[in-house]
Amino acid sequence: MSNHQAPVEALLMKSILGQQLVDTKLHTFSSRSAHPRKVIRPQALFANDVVLIARSEFFAELLSRTGSPDATFVDFDGGSEFEDGITLDDYGYASDSDLEDEEEDRNISESENDEDDDILVLADTISENDALTGPSEAEKPIAPTLIQHQPQVVNYRNILMRDTAFRTLKAFLLYLYTNTISFSPLKSQGPPGTDGQTPNPSTSWPCSPKSMYRLASKVRLDNLRDRAFYEIRNRLDAKNVLQELSSSFTSKYPAILQMNVEVLLQHIASVPVIQNIPALLRRITDSQLPHGADIIISLYQKFLLQHHPRALALANAPIDLKGKGGKKGKK
């Protein structure tokens, strides 16, 4: 049995026994506002601790209540504390493509039943035909008895994930339950085409591979992180590698930077790279990229490794401070 099937089967058993299937309510932001520069519109997703704990040591530590392993996960009472959002600087990833860009003229509608989100009410239902025609005389009870349904109050643990988009978390939870993941194209690839390569949101919950790499790295899910890594790699080409190399996302992850440099070298003689690399170098010399020096160093080292491996090996060889003959004896 795979490691994701066992917790799912445990949930099925809980459902058969009528036990509560939701323990934790995870809140994330879904939109980005330019004026002011904030992430807004918090939304919630629901999860079961059985799955979270079985699939992730990070969440096992988080849900043990011995203290959050990361300051970006915040316990709160589930109220309106974060309704106004937080700044993009606090969010930590201003260019997150899994955030919806808020339109200034969009009318914000508020739900009338926000206060009842944590209450489950079971109600009787009747068919449309029965509602129109009513019961027959034979079916009418002689002494009708009213059955009052008491609201079932469910106590969730409310956790705000301050630096993760709603779309990313939705795809992440689906992965924990099913071990499947679907990725969206990179923004640097341009508008989605009509070639059928774009995931269908009605049958999957696609997310940005960069956003998922960021989340998977945080929660220490190496398999998911690697899947996101190779998805990013497969979407790089001569047209977008320089843009991705200069991004703030690349500056935060050395493995991503190294991979971008490798792709750049593969396309170093392509027309888009030849035309646009001077602009990248000017940004580096103008100190506009915090990882500019790392780009130059990595590019130079990979160039040596590819064209002058012997010279690079000699330069990296340990220096013998004693000389060839070792320590000489006294005369």
From TrEMBL:
Bias (Acidic residues): 97-117
Name the source's superkingdom: Eukaryota
Compositional bias (Polar residues) = 195-206
| InterPro entries named in the record | SKP1/BTB/POZ_sf (IPR011333)
Region of interest (Disordered), ranges: 93-117, 187-207
Record-given protein name: BTB domain-containing protein
Q: What are the top taxonomic ranks of the organism?
A: Eukaryota, Fungi, Dikarya, Basidiomycota, Agaricomycotina
